[in-house]
Amino acid sequence: MMNHSNIIRSKSLIRSKFQVILITIGLGILLGIFCLAQFTQLVSFGLLVSLLLGISLIIIYYSKTLYANLPEGIKNNGVWTGTLTGRGVSAWILGVVLTCFYILLYWFPHILGLSTSGNTGIIGFFDPLSQFFKNQPASEWFVYGTLYTLAIILFGIKFIWKYRHNKYQLLRTISVIFFQTAFAFLLPEFMLRLNLPFNDFKNMWPLNYYFFDSWHLEELMHAGNIGWFMLIWGLAMIFLISPILTYLYGKRWYCSWVCGCGGLAETAGDSFRHLSDKSIKAWNLERYLIYSVLLISVIMTVGVLYSYKTGVNTLLGINTYELRKWYGFIIGAAFSGVIGVGFYPLLGSRVWCRFGCPMAAILGIQQKFFSRFRITTNGGQCITCGNCSTYCEMGIDVRAYAQRGQNIVRASCVGCGICAAVCPRGVLRLENGSADISTRTTQLKTIHISEDALRILN
Amino acid sequence: MARIFIIGNGISGVTAARHIRKLSNHDITIISSESSHFFARTALMYVYMGHMRFKDIKPYEDGFWKKNRIELLHDSVIGIEFISKSLTLESGLKLHYDQLILATGSIPNKMGWPGQDLQGVSGLYHLQDLEMMEQYSKNCSRAVIVGGGLIGIEMAEMFHSRHIPVTLVVREKEYWYNILPPEEAAMISRHIHEHNIDLKLNCELTEILDNGQGEAAGVVLSNGEQIECNYVGLTVGVKPNIEFLKNTALETDRGILVNEQLETNIADVYAIGDCAQLRHALSGRKPIEAIWYTGRMMGETVAYNICKEPVSYNPGIWFNSAKFLDIEYQVYGFVPSKIQSPFNSFYWEHTDGKKSIRLVFNIETSEILGFNLMGIRFRHEVCETWISKKTGLNDVVQNIRLAFFDPEFYKNYEVSFVESFNQQFNQQIILNKNKTLNHVFKFLTQK
């Protein structure tokens, strides 16, 4: 005889099996259609739209079965034991698939169907949509941009479902979906249609590493008032807007509310956030790598500007054109794309943001030294459980601070707020305050009896 | 330079070791039979539920101990010679100590039930309990958890997370009824039902049945009901783990008796954490408190007593926290389960039935005594300041925003909170708008 909870249990088992079957069938059909597209010219706007809609419905339905029928709250059961989220077989398969996709995208787009004499394959598949937006056939970047935006929207919906009890997470996710869709995807495409320079207004140097390239500066300066506006806006973002916002709110205003890389990490990458390496070794590697990338990007930019101004192609014996090319290849493509996203299921969702992004490095320095932002530790409530550290996608050992009753001020913290969300004791809070700005890293807030004793001794 | 031995690598022993290292150059050795390295006992449930791996609940990397010259011995102490100051270990090793810190922790209570020592029966305290739970979770048709306290609901959540049907047997009329005031207890009982956990109130365990192979096969309850199961969790509290110290010169009661400097009756022997019992309980607190943060505070205190000068153990104003499935709980100060004259309380509950605030106060002086929070986070320092300054109830209600610690953008329930207070106590309090971190600093630093 089955009692109530037995029925619930078997229902949930049936549902999870159903999920797997549904997803497998869905992906199978998709793969079939894509293969078909690879070898035929059977593409139409309707087919593409219904395909993308199909993918969307599957992901939304999947999210619903995962979270809709459960009470609001943290949903991390089985994260480390699951094959996809716990570095199992599925994770490796997905990692290889994603990595291959990036390699093809960056270096062999013709295999994906890119051709000057008429696209075929997957890229040809997106021609109707590209024609619709800007009267041009699709490029590999258009395909990538469409899929990228779709991923942020759909997994954003999943994320919102999962964290629906937490308004900070809700608003933040709506924000990244908005900035990706409107600023990174739609607006630049429409501008191309109007024969204006491609411009993502929320992006800035040095993440946008071509900003100071001669072709880009020329393009802006020859595009009339709008071009000049884009140039001035770009400079204002770097030197005025971003430092002010980072002073007020920490680098989270960008990294987990606006940025596209961060947007993908927070939504599609959410299931992999715990995979980030928390060891001291990783932290050391992080500091060397990210500031090296920043340094190289500065040298490259200075070189490019020097060449633009003087017409001389070498600076201190370095060929500025070659340096720029290699930066684009190693940092722009291999690091941020192949490793940054391709390795999500193995290394976690913020590998690029943590180890490579020069923008994050600059905002991080601002955050560490001139910002009101910190994560406050709530008195003596920490029980050292480690959920905060485990779910920190940036690999910060949050627990090490929390158990000492110390505020967390780290250059790398992107302010996603998940540490505060998963804390079972209400210990952490993301806050901004100017009153203690010089001591916000050093205060010990635990109710230490021995701290009193120390005071007596002193 | 002294040779200091610490028995037990829980939070108390490890905190003591860390602080002794900070303050001195002594030789420090921690002995534990439970695990080779310190782990957070509070997080065992998250390992079972797959939120973390075991390595994630170790707060320090394994290299930390060597770097800080803290020696770890994975061994069991079987005898202590207090006169010759020596320890005998299971491996046969005999060690001489100059100072000894006993931090042996607790063991789960067993009330003499028939079948309580069967396989598939355990509490949730030691790493070995987790291993047993893991082993018996394969093909588990049902788990029965006995005890309506903090560990009971954790164990229920653990099995529930793996879709194993759970029965939670609670002696009282609501969950944790002897600690929580009735409304909060009822809220948690409702929440347990919402998760489809079979909650049996007003019910006790009578017997655990044997499957014939020395394993649990079911339970018999006080109402005569018999429930088949493959696992029985015993979570009716813990007691100090001092069995091996009985019948020695060490003075014990329920725990190892210590004075306010955490010294036992034997010179150079200290006891801290769950296993220590204060000879004179501090006001408003119990002589034995098996709590994470008190263990930590005792560890710090003992380190100062050994390395510097005598410091009295003083955990300050009571606080604690827990999480009941999805509902967080925080308490600051004095919140009894039965609130009677000269005390009274104001209770506000959100319409969703999952959030509440209770303010306990003294009717005569109207000073605030305690805060009880469900599903809402309050700021420790602010609550503590209000309590220690004997702030008036109206003042607290008016400035309640200063205490808010929920993430940004959370719903503003304070309007409903104050309206309800004004109505119930016939007041015209207008909420103070101050709520930023700078306001909090100003409040905390004013004399």
Offer a quick outline of the entry.
Chain A is mainly α. Helix content of chain A is 62%, strand content 3%. Chain A has helices at residues 4-39, 45-68, 89-107, 121-125, 127-134, 140-162, 167-193, 214-221, 224-249, 252-255, 260-267, 280-310, 320-339, 344-347, 351-355, 358-369, 387-390, 398-402, 418-422, 449-457, and strands at residues 314-315, 318-319, 373-377, 428-432.
Secondary-structure blueprint:
The complex is a heterodimer of chains A (458) and B (447).
Chain A: H1 4-39, H2 45-68, H3 89-107, H4 121-125, H5 127-134, H6 140-162, H7 167-193, H8 214-221, H9 224-249, H10 252-255, H11 260-267, H12 280-310, E1 314-315, E2 318-319, H13 320-339, H14 344-347, H15 351-355, H16 358-369, E3 373-377, H17 387-390, H18 398-402, H19 418-422, E4 428-432, H20 449-457
Antiparallel strand pairs in A: 1-2, 3-4
Helix pairs in contact in A: 1-2, 2-6, 3-13, 6-7, 6-11, 7-11, 8-9, 12-13, 12-16
Chain B: E1 3-7, H1 11-23, E2 27-32, H2 44-48, H3 63-67, E3 70-74, E4 77-81, E5 86-89, E6 94-96, E7 99-102, E8 106-108, E9 121-122, H4 127-137, E10 143-146, H5 150-161, E11 166-169, H6 182-194, E12 198-200, E13 205-210, E14 216-221, E15 226-228, E16 231-234, E17 238-240, E18 256-258, E19 269-271, E20 276-278, H7 292-307, E21 319-324, E22 327-333, E23 343-349, E24 356-362, E25 368-374, H8 380-388, H9 393-398, H10 414-425, H11 437-445
Parallel strand pairs in B: 1-2, 1-7, 2-3, 7-19, 9-16, 10-11, 10-16, 11-12, 18-20
Antiparallel strand pairs in B: 4-5, 5-6, 8-17, 13-14, 14-15, 21-22, 22-25, 23-24, 24-25
Helix pairs in contact in B: 1-7
